Amino acid sequence: MKYRYCYHCGKPTIQKEIEGRQRSYCKQCRIVLYENPIPSVAVVLTDRAHRILLVRRSVEPGFGKWCLPGGFMEMGETPQQAAIREIREELGIDINDLKLLDIGTHLNGYYGDVLIIGFAAEIDAGLNLNPGDDVSDAKFYLLDERPELVFRVHENFIRTWRRRTGL
Ligand SMILES: [Zn+2]
């Protein structure tokens, strides 16, 4: 994932130890091309009966596996706006009243290191779900009858949610 080319001038970078880490450096621009985790969001969506809404992925990583709805933040968005947008894109529904749940990381994955901001929200189980392009299915599950999630950090969010709600 290191920057092999400078994103300012397009010239090849060199690898150099800077501040105790190997980093990409552009000799022309004299800048360090720092790498950082990518911010994303995930939402523990539950109904009044405490069933949890999961989505089945139709994209890599984790094609065909289940996970929490969510995705990467876009430029200019707050984490809350990103969560609301992702839920609209993946499920075709609007949510509000998001509660910050937890923060986690997914390291060395398909996209490198990802920072995941976890939210919780309650939704009406009677809403019509319209799964979007990244999702092949969306379903409410009882907590003890749900499939295992493809991302460990999502499992951690559900654990945090259960601890908070005492379920
Ligand atoms: Zn440069």
Q: How does this structure look, described?
A:
This protein starts with 13 loop residues before the first strand and ends with a helix. A hairpin with an 8-residue loop joins strand 5 and strand 6. The protein has 167 residues and is an alpha+beta fold. The chain has helices at residues 79-91, 152-165, and strands spanning 14-18, 21-26, 31-33, 38-46, 52-57, 66-67, 70-72, 99-109, 112-122, 135-141. The protein has two domains: 1-35, Ubiquitin Ligase Nedd4, Chain: W (Single Sheet), CATH 2.20.70; 38-165, Alpha-Beta Complex (Nucleoside Triphosphate Pyrophosphohydrolase), CATH 3.90.79. The mean pLDDT is 94. The chain has a four-stranded mixed beta sheet, sandwiched between helices. A three-stranded antiparallel beta sheet has the order 1-2-3, with no helix packed on it. A three-stranded antiparallel beta sheet has the order 6-5-10, with no helix packed on it. Bound molecules: zinc ion (ZN). Residues 6, 8-9, 11, 26, 28-29 line the site of zinc ion. Zinc ion (ZN) binds at residues 6, 8-9, 11, 26, 28-29.
